[in-house]
Amino acid sequence: xxxxxxxxxxxxxxxxxxxxxxxxxxxxxxxxxxxxxxxxxxxxxxxxxxxxxxxxxxxxxxxxxxxxxxxxxxxxxxxxxxxxxxxxxxxxxxxxxxxxxxxxxxxx
Amino acid sequence: xxxxxxxxxxxxxxxxxxxxxxxxxxxxxxxxxxxxxxxxxxxxxxxxxxxxxxxxxxxxxxxxxxxxxxxxxxxxxxxxxxxxxxxxxxxxxxxxxxxxxxxxxxxxxxxxxxxxxxxxxxxxxxxxxxxxxxxxxxxxxxxxxxxxxxxxxxxxxxxxxxxxxxxxxxxxxxxxxxxxxxxxxxxxxxxxxxxxxxxxxxxxxxxxxxxxxxxxxxxxxxxxxxxxxxxxxxxxxxxxxxxxxxxxxxxxxxxxxxxxxxxxxxxxxxxxxxxxxxxxxxxxxxxxxxxxxxxxxxxxxxxxxxxxxxxxxxxxxxxxxxxxxxxxxxxxxxxxxxxxxxxxxxxxxxxxxxxxxxxxxxxxxxxxxxxxxxxxxxxxxxxxxxxxxxxxxxxxxxxxxxxxxxxxxxxxxxxxxxxxxxxxxxxxxxxxxxxxxxxxxxxxxxxxxxxxxxxxxxxxxxxxxxxxxxxxxxxxxxxxxxxxxxxxxxxxxxxxxxxxxxxxxxxxxxxxxxxxxxxxxxxxxxxxxxxxxxxxxxxxxxxxxxxxxxxxxxxxxxxxxxxxxxxxxxxxxxxxxxxxxxxxxxxxxxxxxxxxxxxxxxxxxxxxxxxxxxxxxxxxxxxx
Lengths: 108, 624
Hints:
heterodimer, A: three-stranded antiparallel sheet, 3 strands, B: eight-stranded mixed sheet, five-stranded mixed sheet
């Protein structure tokens, strides 16, 4: 599924916030989870600017963790601001889904 | 700014397309973003991800599908560098320079421009003269000033047709444009005009005189040709010739030739005209200055009119057909023409003098070529303004504007003091006798000539009484000429001062005349028989008969019963010579009741007084 529109960006952003709600994850893990959830085209090239933008907005708490054979990885987890933004997204998304379903289930 | 050691190590570990992308990302971030820590933190995360993906064997396109988009979105998420001051100043200077360039372009395209440059002014004598200069495409008009304002004119073309006199001239041309080319340009040059003068540059001309013309022809042509060898570069000639001609004429020029001047005779047309009217007089030299094209072309035709003598031959009317007729005159210092038609308003004439053409009209008639013969009679006088000397006109040009032939007569003029008696001699032809110096109210003017003897001899006579028309103009009231037979008097009544008597006589003859006032008994021109016998004296009637005419009136001779009137005649229009006895003409029959009223005119055509005596005359009847 490709999302190039603003709506797509907002949905992807909401999904990333949701994945980071439960604990710390690093970028490669996020990409893998997104692809498993159906966003097959989702890549690091999309993720990195998004993480950077959300981090500047204060949505994350980050920490670096050393590894044995590779450079240290940066892990992300939602901050209070991030949680609030996730909540807002969920409300808007539910309203949107409800409205769209009504349209599609309506008999002409 | 520089990459952290950890990040440098990661970047170094990358290979192939990963390394290439890593360098592009690093270069872009360091170029546009600030903050080493923030940049290295961001790059560290991204480079680490790239290293992991490379180790996993994933292609870069799977990790970074759109390299440029990823780099751009990364850069804008980091703090951007500020524009350095030097760049700002440079930008401002560039903007100012651009504004100056725009202003310069606007000035270049919108500023008023000179209409152009006039580089030369030339003059050509061809086609009657032409001033020309180089054409300015942006000029709307040109102002041409010749000789410092002596002549200023305008033209829309880069030439002006104008004849310049020979000599130096300053010609100034000012060109005016429109729109952007609103700045006028002035240029002047001194031009020397030289007309090549070639004396005698015309071939032999035809010499025409009156004798060479046919009587039936009214016009002939004097043709002037240019000589062949002048068909070179010059195009102006001076032609001098002496035409032996005595005709009024018209000239016509051909092939673009024009007359520059006619130095003698005051050409009656403007110089430069292609045709016109002028008069050639015998004995004068005419100098034509012609200009025109080269070549042996026909230059000039001069139409000539034959001159007819006025008055014409004996018995010949002076015919004036429709159009122009030229009469030659001789003799009188002043003259008059008389047209015997009462409807000659279309007949006009112009009198020409031998020596002067420019002032050839009588005083008071202006410069008109023709005078109207609108009242059957017109006279001319020419007087010198200073000396009062009159000149004889040599030619009379008559123009008949009607379709009908008319007749014109030259009349001699004589003046008499008509308040007395006298004898006047007139020549054959027309004579105009003007009555002067009296108030002729209640007068009769009587004329008589008793030598009309033959049936083909004739005298015609008429009175022309001056009148003033309602428009203030003056003229004469004319009548048809009256034929006067032998034994008849011509009597004009109710005439005024200035009345003219026109006499047309077959031959030279004498006329007796008198102005008689029958209401004034004391006048010597008038004898009242009653008054004579009222004296109660002698029966012999005596009185002096002066030259001219005396009127005798009154007297009734009665015959009572057997007293017959044996010999009673009245004196009546009979020639009486000095010393001769005379009879009364007419008379009664001598009957007892015969009576005769004496009322007639006694004529003395001699040079002196005659004493008349009538014996046995009586106012009352008597026996002899």
